[in-house]
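User: Here's a structure from my thesis project, written as structure tokens. My advisor, Dr. K., wants to see whether a designed sequence matches the one we expressed. Can you design one independently, without my sequence as a hint?
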């Protein structure tokens, strides 16, 4: 893209360095994506990050390129008018505070990133190295975007509010690497145990209330045709991670307000938990009727994918509700809506 060559020289150098760093992060995490089923969605992360940046490029160039920005698209023209109408004041105190925190983020991120790289070189693939690389890159990316966007291609100073907005657009490309990186075993066990307890509680009391013969022993449910471990019905940790990724992406692409994005992620977790309870009820019912061995294999896997699919459908159904007012405003403009 020709407009990329018009970016400020320092921004280009910073972008090249960030690209090299994220390639190494993706290479490191790909080891876990290949051996841990719950993180297989990680293979989609690089593609979705590229798409997010591409989708936001019309807005990005308005800030970074100034008068050299390509305003051929309606999105770029509308956003240019919005920036001009906002008349953002380049508050010195705001720039000072933001520069301080951005510098701390970059310095701290570099320490963690270099530690992760050194640890990986010495010990090979490890969660410690992956954690250092992932959180280090996230901090470096957000801090660098602010620090190196002080001037646009015309040499004009970019107001601090616009630079903060620019950094905010990279929250998904930065933080999604923390989601695609495996959690430490202790943390994952704690979350899994919590989910197992809640799922077993709901399943046991549901069957008991309906009058079925069932006995709960921790996470084991004793049925007439054999015991069923809630582990067989899955605690939901796998679907939770995948649904979090889906909710984060949908919120980043289709929602404009920060609170809406946060709420979408929260609803992704809620839907994943509720759907997994229904899945556990179904699998326990299946085991009650056909034996505990019957829920292994195809039945177990198909219901697992169904949880993810139904959660995504539920999240998609929320989008028109979140964007109702936005669609109404477009309808009032007549031809623009068309």
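Assistant: Designed independently from the structure alone:
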């Amino acid at each position: 893209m020709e407009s990329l060559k018009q970016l400020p020289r320092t921004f280009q150098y910073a972008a090249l360095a960030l690209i090299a760093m994220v390639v190494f992060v993706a290479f490191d995490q790909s080891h876990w994506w290949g051996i841990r089923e719950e993180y297989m969605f990680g293979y989609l992360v690089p593609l979705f990050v590229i798409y997010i940046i591409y989708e936001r490029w019309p807005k990005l160039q308005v800030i970074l390129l100034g008068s050299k920005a390509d305003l051929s698209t309606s999105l770029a023209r509308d956003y240019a008018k919005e920036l001009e109408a906002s008349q953002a004041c380049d508050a010195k105190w705001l720039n000072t505070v933001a520069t301080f925190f951005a510098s701390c983020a970059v310095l701290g991120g570099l320490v963690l990133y270099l530690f992760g790289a050194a640890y990986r070189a010495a010990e090979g693939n490890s969660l410690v190295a992956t954690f250092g690389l992932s959180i280090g890159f996230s901090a470096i990316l957000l801090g660098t975007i602010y620090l190196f966007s002080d001037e646009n291609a015309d040499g004009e100073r970019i107001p601090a509010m616009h630079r903060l907005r620019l950094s905010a657009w990279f929250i998904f490309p930065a933080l999604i690497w923390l989601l695609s990186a495996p959690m430490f075993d202790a943390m994952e066990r704690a979350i899994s145990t919590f989910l197992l307890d809640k799922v077993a509680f709901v399943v046991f009391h549901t069957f008991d209330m309906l009058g079925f013969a069932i006995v709960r022993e921790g996470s084991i449910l004793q049925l007439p045709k054999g015991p069923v471990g809630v582990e067989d019905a899955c605690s939901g940790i796998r679907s939770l991670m995948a649904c979090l990724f889906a909710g984060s992406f949908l919120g980043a692409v289709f929602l404009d307000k920060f609170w809406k994005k946060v709420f979408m992620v929260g609803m992704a977790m809620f839907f994943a938990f509720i759907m997994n309870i229904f899945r556990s009820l179904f699998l326990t019912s299946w085991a009650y009727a056909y034996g505990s061995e019957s829920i292994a294999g195809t039945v177990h896997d198909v219901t697992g994918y169904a949880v993810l699919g139904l959660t995504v459908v539920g999240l998609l159904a929320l989008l028109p509700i979140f964007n109702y007012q936005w669609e109404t405003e477009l309808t009032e403009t007549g031809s623009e809506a068309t």
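When you compare it with your expressed construct, this may help: Residues 326-338 have pLDDT under 50 and may be disordered.
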